[in-house]
Amino acid sequence: MNRVDAHQHFWRLDRGDYGWLTPQLQPIYRDYLPADLAPQLARAGIDSTVLVQAAPTIAESLYLLELASEHDFIAGVIGWVDFESSVAAESIATLAADAKLVGLRPMIQDIPDVAWMLKPELAPAIEAMIDHDLVFDALLLPKHLPVLLDFAELYPELRLVVDHGAKPQIRGGDITEWRHDVQAVARGTNAVCKMSGLVTEAGSANPAQLAPAVDHLLEVFGPERLMWGSDWPVCELVCSYDEWYQASEMLLVRLDALAREQIYSGTARATYGI
């Protein structure tokens, strides 16, 4: 199986635009570059990745596209633009000239306005994404899921991905409301979902603790709309790449080979055109 890591990051601290990445996040407060990831991909049998933005700047998008041009295993880049800018559509067209740009990701979880996605000012940027066949990666919290339903209705042609399963509050132990809202998104939209980032929400790579959320995502999205990602190096706040991969193997062990191949490869390839 040619596996895809559908969600990983690189960063170089001296670039200076990672507002969230502070010394308080000491386990990951250092440079993470392709040479750091390569041995871990080899151990897990991953042959390609989707590289996702970690800073809200155009400079970040250009930096990631440069890395992708230098490293063949980076099959696609999820970049960033200012969706509210008067030149957003032009910026998207410029970035989309690079074939490795497969999507864009506003950092919705950090935007105070919960209903930000519905602002009319975003329409030119969203329409440009549709025109260039780009995927909208939604970095959401559970509170954003009802808004995502309205957003999907506004832009039915836009291809949507829910990052990190919309970050269920696994550590707190009550995911009842999240279960309801993520099921509504699965049933009411064509969104695809990433099985990634869950160890950070759980504070653990224990499969028993992760299983209720993963099993629910499997039930509502099915393997055809679920894809695996490491969220490395953010996952290193809790566990190593290898530990999350091994936990994932245990969480998916009951599935047949075809379903596992879909989650580890097929869904990401179809979604991002890899």
Radius of gyration: 17 Å
Number of helices: 10
Give the total of domains.
1
CATH class, named Alpha Beta
Reported for the largest beta sheet, the result is: 8 strands, parallel
Order of helices and strands: EHEHEHEHEHEHEHHEHH
Poorly predicted runs of 5 or more residues: none
Percent strand equals: 5-15%
Can you list the strand order of the major beta sheet? 1-2-3-4-5-6-7-8
What's the architecture in CATH terms?
A: Alpha-Beta Barrel
Q: Can you tell me the overall shape?
A: globular
CATH topology, by name, is TIM Barrel
Query: How many strand units?
Result: 8
Distance between the termini: 15 Å
Helicity level, as a percent range? 40-55%
Describe this protein with a few key phrases:
alpha/beta, 8-stranded parallel β-sheet, 8 strands, TIM Barrel, globular, about 270 residues
Describe this structure in words.
It is a single chain. Helix 5 packs parallel to helix 6. The mean pLDDT is about 95. The protein has an eight-stranded parallel sheet. It has helices at about 35-45, 60-70, 90-95, 125-130, 145-155, 175-190, 200, 205-220, 240-250, 255-270, and strands at about 5-10, 45-50, 75-80, 100-105, 135-140, 160, 190-195, 225-230. The chain has about 270 residues and is of the alpha/beta class.
Q: Topology of this protein?
A:
Blueprint lengths: L2 E6 L25 H11 L1 E7 L5 H13 L3 E6 L8 H9 L4 E4 L18 H9 L3 E4 L6 H10 L4 E4 L13 H13 L3 E4 L2 H5 L4 H15 L4 E3 L12 H11 L5 H16 L2
Parallel strand pairs: 1-2, 2-3, 3-4, 4-5, 5-6, 6-7, 7-8
Helix pairs in contact: 3-4, 5-6, 6-8, 8-9
